[in-house]
Amino acid sequence: MIRVPMTAAGEKALRAELEQLKTVDRPRVIADIAEAREHGDLKENAEYHAAREQQGFIEGRIQDLESKLSNCQVIDVSAIPATGKVIFGTTVTIINLDTEETKTYQIVGDDEADIKAGKISVNSPIARGLVGKEEGDVVNIQTPGGATEFEIDEVAHL
C-alpha cells in the first residue's frame, strides 16, 4: 500500500469534512428523500431524484475521504528540527532572480494543494525543484513560462 504524505493541518481538515458529511449532510439528505417519497409518484418527482443524486455524491465523497485518510502518512513538520533544508511540509520563500519577485509556498500533499492559499503539491514542478535544496541555494525550475531561476531565501518549519 502506498502511503500518501499529508500535513497535520490537511489531515485535520479532511477529518472535519468527513465528520460534517456523516453527521450533518447524510442525515439531511436521508430526510429529504423520505419527504420526497411522501409526495407520491417517484418517476416524475424531481425533488426525489435530486436528493438521490445528492446522496450518491455524499456517499462517494465519504468513501473517498475514508480511503485518503486510511492511506495517509501525517507529517508534522513543526516536530522536525529546522535545518534550512526544503522538505515536505516546510514553508519556503523564494525569489525569482529575473523579476526580483518574492513568493512564499508551503509544500503539501496533493489533496491539500491550493495555489491561492500559497500551498503547492509536493508533486508540482516548483516543489520538485525545491525539495532537498537549502536556504541560499539557486535552483533552475522548469515552469510553464520556461526555465526560471529562483533563490531560496528562507525555509520555515511552521
From TrEMBL:
Output the InterPro entries linked to this UniProt entry: GreA/GreB_C_sf, TF_GreA/GreB_CS, Tscrpt_elong_fac_GreA, Tscrpt_elong_fac_GreA/B, Tscrpt_elong_fac_GreA/B_C, Tscrpt_elong_fac_GreA/B_fam, Tscrpt_elong_fac_GreA/B_N, Tscrpt_elong_fac_GreA/B_N_sf
Is Signal among this UniProt entry's keywords?
Answer: no
Which molecular function terms from Gene Ontology are attached?
A: translation elongation factor activity
Write one Pfam family the protein is assigned to: GreA_GreB
User: Which SUPFAM superfamilies does this chain map to?
Assistant: FKBP-like, GreA transcript cleavage protein, N-terminal domain
Tell me, in a sentence or two, what this protein's role is.
Necessary for efficient RNA polymerase transcription elongation past template-encoded arresting sites. The arresting sites in DNA have the property of trapping a certain fraction of elongating RNA polymerases that pass through, resulting in locked ternary complexes. Cleavage of the nascent transcript by cleavage factors such as GreA or GreB allows the resumption of elongation from the new 3'terminus. GreA releases sequences of 2 to 3 nucleotides.
Q: What is this protein called?
A: Transcription elongation factor GreA
This protein's species is Neptuniibacter pectenicola
